[in-house]
Recover the amino acids of this structure.
């Protein structure tokens, strides 16, 4: 089953998790964290379906946040080597202007458009884990020397060899600020 089973377009042209996506993932054999009612005292406890999994330290929202932050830092520092470590070789995505991008395109942009980006402000961000796939959604404001813009983003990370890699991303321009 593809990632599209878990995402849909929202009314603003961005992406969001489908209602019941976590339930659907669990029913279809995907693992992740979920809450469960305890039958003995009727309280809610966190249940982890990755107990005993050697990848468990990598299978966490916190680890995905760390990779997200490293991705932002690589772009802010114009560091193509750091970005290359985060982006999967088979990456394909699209930017907020509708251009299709591959890994080589992103690395080219980082190398040749130095010092244009001065700040990335995360306005909202969410992560949903589904087995070896993490969906990261949110809004971010990109500040450049002469302009800024805000986007809504969807990023798909995949866990390969105990490392989260950016497999795909799509952004939608939601407002220009001068």
């Amino acid at each position: 089953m593809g990632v599209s089973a878990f995402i849909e377009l929202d009314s603003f042209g961005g992406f969001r998790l489908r209602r019941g996506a976590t339930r659907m993932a669990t029913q279809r054999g995907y693992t992740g964290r979920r809450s469960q009612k305890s039958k003995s005292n009727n309280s809610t406890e966190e249940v982890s379906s990755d107990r005993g999994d050697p990848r468990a330290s990598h299978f966490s929202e916190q680890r995905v946040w760390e990779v997200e932050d490293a991705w932002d830092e690589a772009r802010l520092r114009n560091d193509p080597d750091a970005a290359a470590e985060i982006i999967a070789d088979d990456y394909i995505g699209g930017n907020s202007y509708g251009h299709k991008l591959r890994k080589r395109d992103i690395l080219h942009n980082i190398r040749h458009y130095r010092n244009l980006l001065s700040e990335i402000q995360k306005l909202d961000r969410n992560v949903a884990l589904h087995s070896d796939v993490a969906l990261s959604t949110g809004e971010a404001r990109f500040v450049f020397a002469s302009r800024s813009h805000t986007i809504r983003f969807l990023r798909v990370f995949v866990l390969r060899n105990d490392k989260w890699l950016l497999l795909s991303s799509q952004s939608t321009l939601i407002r220009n600020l001068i």
